[in-house]
Design goal:
The protein has five helices and three strands. The relative contact order is 0.12. A three-stranded antiparallel beta sheet has the order 1-3-2. By secondary structure, it is mostly helical. The N and C termini lie far apart (86 Å). 53% of the residues lie in helices and 10% in strands.
């Protein structure tokens, strides 16, 4: 068996793979986010803690369209504005209920 072989140093290989992934995916990586942008998103763990839900419930809410997921750098991130408005709408929605006696 004959073939062409290329020898690369570890750092060179990392650079080549990184460039290929960026080209193929074409999305921002987490390291490309500005500090302001990174402060605008929650991670999956943070959303679950904030809403007091499980990962399964979060997944179901994404499938239903209740929560919008943003894929950045291969991670699922959630807009703080969207989560806050969701919490506010749920609190206002339950607060307006009148009890019937």
């Amino acid at each position: 068996m004959q073939g062409n072989f290329i020898m690369l140093q570890k750092d060179d290989l990392k650079q080549v793979v990184s460039e290929l992934v960026e080209e193929l995916v074409g999305k921002k990586t987490l390291s490309d986010l500005t500090p302001e942008e990174s402060d605008e998103y929650y991670t999956r763990d943070q959303v679950c803690d904030r809403l007091h839900i499980t990962y399964t419930t979060l997944w179901r809410m994404q499938k239903e369209g209740t929560i919008v997921v943003h894929k950045l750098g291969g991670r699922n991130l959630y807009s703080k504005k969207e989560i806050t408005s969701l919490v506010t709408s749920k609190v206002q929605g339950t607060g307006n209920c009148e009890s019937k006696v």
